[in-house]
Structures are given as structure tokens and as C-alpha cells.
Amino acid sequence: MVMGPRGFTIGQLAAATEVNLETVRYYERIGLMPPPARTEGGHRAYEPAHVRRIAFIRHARALGFGIEDIRALLTLAAPGHRSCAEVRDIASAHLSEVRTKLAHLTRLERILSATVDQCSGAPTPACPVLDMLDAPM
Amino acid sequence: MVMGPRGFTIGQLAAATEVNLETVRYYERIGLMPPPARTEGGHRAYEPAHVRRIAFIRHARALGFGIEDIRALLTLAAPGHRSCAEVRDIASAHLSEVRTKLAHLTRLERILSATVDQCSGAPTPACPVLDMLDAPM
DNA sequence: CTGCATCCCGTAGCCACTACAGGATCAAGC
DNA sequence: GCTTGATCCTGTAGTGGCTACGGGATGCAG
């Protein structure tokens, strides 16, 4: 499938952006991607703007932004509407969520590694991991 | 509801272990909790062993273990079956997952905080957050 | 004009819950 | 014994962000 000048099939779009083909259709279904033109037979025909939009979404997802955040960011990224303050609010709210999760995971890592270390250390009678899970925390 | 000597309602079990009541039923449905005895009217009647088991599960969930891991841990924690090596394998596999996620989140935190900092800094022409999302990474 | 890759749509599954709806049961007060 | 209100019951559907099917249509090279 070649799809004329500046026209991409969904497969080409997916390959170019390294986004799963079914994910692209999912984004369209939830209204994150605008419905593209269609061929006579009903196949989707994408244009470069779609590629850029998918790339934007992919980058935002890679940074952990949720779909609703991305929806808002896409609106704010529209030409003539670049409100940096609102963008920064979304980003810094997300950043503090990331920091919360980070703190949580750091705590888990400390507890788990300490307990597993006890296991691989000197031959103890009972299992340190099970002991910890049994005991009140 | 008082539920005789050593008998708990699901509500009491949930309150005692700080696990959501509906989550307790969910654990029973997926076979993580054994079905308790019932009153004449069909209400669940729990015993102290159930409280200990829910507490174990809660501790393991708080450490981020998945349900299937917990299922295995509960089997290994059964009396006469304490195989510390298998427990340690599960725990250290989980620990390395935690470390992977930690590395990922740390990366996100660095990128996001750097970008948001650029935002609150000197008055720049465009939005650093949107610029990053638009640019190839 | 045949064959095969790619595409279409719709639905169901993943994880670990959580939130209902619509009804039954329990225990206490009168 | 009866009412009241808290608690309990079952079953189903929703969350987020995809992913994986099944059963068919289309596109294009040979």
C-alpha cells in the first residue's frame, strides 16, 4: 500500500511513530485523534499533521501524562492559544504526582531490599520475608 | 451485630484490617480468601485465622506484590511448607521490578522538573513544555 | 484473477479494585 | 412482636490505557 503523496496508511503511521496500530484506532475512538480521511474502500488516510499529533501524544505518554492531561495539552498547544501558565500547571501537577510515586517506590525498595538481604545472609531459622508479612507493620 | 465468640462480620474484619469491605469479597471471589462459614441468613462469619490472612495480604499488597505472587506466598507460608528459597525468589524478582520502575520514574522526574523549571524562570518566548513535547526525543 | 498483506469494526480481556442497584438480614428499642 | 436503621447479600459495570482477538473487506503485485 503506497497511499499517494503525503498520505499514510494506519500501518505506516504506526510504524513511523512506534505506536501500536490498535492504539492509534483507540486514540481516535476516544477523540484524542481526529478522524482522518478515508479511501474509497474505507481505509484511513493520514496526513503529516496526524504524524506530528501522534508523536506529541507519544512523548507525553512517555512522560507519564494521562489521557485527559494530554487532551488539555493538545488544546493548549493549538496555534494562537499557547497559554504557558496553564501548561505549566498541568505539568507541575503531574510532576508532584510523579514525586509522590517516587517516594512511595523508594520506601518499598528500602524495605524489600533489606528483607531480601536478610534472606541471602547468614542461615536464619525462619523466613525473614514471611516473618515481615506476618507481623503487623 | 455481635457474632458470638471469635466470630466477625465482614464489616468488622474490614475495619480491623483496614481493607475495604468490597475488596474482602473480591479476594474471596478470586480464591485468595477461603469462603468463611455463614450465618443462617447467609452472612459471612469470619474467624481469627481470616483476620491474619487478610493482614498478610494487605502487607504484601502494600509492598507492591501482585495477586498471583501473593497467592504463591500464601501457599509457601502454609505450615510445614516454609521454603525460604522460593519466597526469596519471588521477593527478589519483585524487588527488581520495583527498581526498574524506580529508575523509570527517576528519569521522568528529572526531565519534568528541568522543563517546569525553565517555565518558571526567565520570560521565554515559547512554552518549554510544549516545545519538548513537539520535538523528537 | 489469485493470493496474501493489510485494513476494517466490534467486542472482550488485562489489573486490582471500587461503586453501584435492589434486595435480605440482624439486633436493638419500644 | 414489630419497627427501624445499620449492615449485609449478589451481581454487574466502571476505572485507565491499552491489547488481542474474530470474521470479514480491501489493496496491490504478479
Automatic annotation (TrEMBL), chains A, B:
<dbReference type="InterPro" id="IPR047057">
    <property type="entry name" value="MerR_fam"/>
</dbReference>
<dbReference type="InterPro" id="IPR000551">
    <property type="entry name" value="MerR-type_HTH_dom"/>
</dbReference>
<protein>
    <submittedName>
        <fullName>MerR family transcriptional regulator</fullName>
    </submittedName>
</protein>
<dbReference type="Pfam" id="PF13411">
    <property type="entry name" value="MerR_1"/>
</dbReference>
<keyword id="KW-0238">DNA-binding</keyword>
<feature type="domain" description="HTH merR-type">
    <location>
        <begin position="7"/>
        <end position="76"/>
    </location>
</feature>
<dbReference type="InterPro" id="IPR009061">
    <property type="entry name" value="DNA-bd_dom_put_sf"/>
</dbReference>
